Amino acid sequence: MARIPAEQRRHALVQAALAVIYRDGVAAATTRTVVAEAGMSLASFHYVFDSRDELIREVIAAIVEDVEVAASLSLEPGRDIAETVRNGLRAYMLHVQADPMREVMLNELMNHALRDPELAHLPQIQYRIYRRTAATLLELAAAVSGVRWNRPMDEMAHLFATFTDGLSLTWLGDRDDEAAERTIELAALAVSVFAVPIEQPADPV
Question: How many whole angstroms separate alpha carbon 39 and alpha carbon 191?
Answer without folding.
Answer: 46
